[in-house]
Amino acid sequence: MPPLPLIEPNTALFLDFDGTLADLAPRPELVQVEPELVGTLHRLYDRLDGALAIVSGRPIIELDHFLQPLLLPAAGVHGAELRTAGAQIEMKPAPGLEPLIPPLEALVRRHPGLRLERKSVAVAIHYREAPELEGLVRAAVTDVLRHAIGLEGMPGKMVVEIKPAGINKGDAIAAFMNMPPFAGRGPVFAGDDVTDEAGFAVVRKLGGVGVLVGQRETMATVSVTGPAALRCWLHRSARAFDGTPAPDERPAVSDPQRDLEGDSL
């Protein structure tokens, strides 16, 4: 399959953060950002006339911390938070979330391998350090949501999150695509988690490109092997805009469906 093409001037670029721009870490606060990445994102933002947004499960304030001094357009908490260029963060309400916290805190106290993460309008239970507790975590989230209104559970990589119902990364991307400077461009979205599938579906519907970071069944149209390969693609694209491409840095790209078929042989 041909290599993932470099980013073009008419691209609307959407990027997940954890597992995509940055390698996953045992705990969210331990994530490290490659030093060159911030400069590359800044150059791409300029070359794309501002049509670059981060679309993440993290709150926008955390994204700003990791990518400082950049303040990029962003969708945080899977789209519950939205910020366009130069604007304040708009936040969807999460009524009824607070009463769910005490039983989840009690669960985490009973199982030290679990971690409770409070977000602006969501809460997540991470079980990366105790993967054997996945069933227990899912059951606990189902139980606390039994009588909740306007909230829903969403599983991800070693995490289950409770967030406002009816929001996802696909809707966030669609909202950006209706605004300048994103409107009228070809969307490209890169992500790694099952929570990114809604985004892949939207960009495919709009005739764009979904880039899966990793290998699994997906709605994405191409894949790269991991965050390092995705960053390599971003660096090469930025250098190409500047007229200094580095052809030896071409990332490994594949057809996710073909890879899955090959794995089943």
What is the element layout, followed by pairings?
Blueprint (H helix, E strand, L loop, with lengths): L10 E5 L19 H13 L4 E4 L4 H8 L6 E3 L4 E3 L6 E2 L9 H10 L4 E4 L4 E4 L7 H11 L6 E6 L2 E6 L4 H9 L8 E6 L5 H9 L3 E5 L8 E3 L2 H15 L11 E2 L1 H8 L2
Parallel strand pairs: 1-2, 1-10, 2-3, 10-11, 11-12
Antiparallel strand pairs: 3-4, 4-5, 6-7, 7-9, 8-9, 12-13
Helix pairs in contact: 1-7, 5-6
General description of the model:
This protein has 265 residues and is α/β, with parallel strands linked by helices. The chain has two domains: 11-87 and 167-263, Rossmann fold (3-Layer(aba) Sandwich), CATH 3.40.50; 98-164, Alpha-Beta Plaits. Helix content is 31%, strand content 20%. It has helices spanning 35-47, 60-67, 101-110, 134-144, 169-177, 197-205, 227-241, 256-263, and strands at residues 11-15, 52-55, 74-76, 81-83, 90-91, 115-118, 123-126, 151-156, 159-164, 186-191, 209-213, 222-224, 253-254. The chain has a nine-stranded mixed β-sheet with strand order 5-4-3-2-1-10-11-12-13, with helices on both faces. Helix 6 links the parallel strand 10 and strand 11 (209-213). Helix 1 (35-47) crosses helix 7 (227-241) and helix 5 (169-177) packs parallel to helix 6. The longest helix has 15 residues, at 227-241.
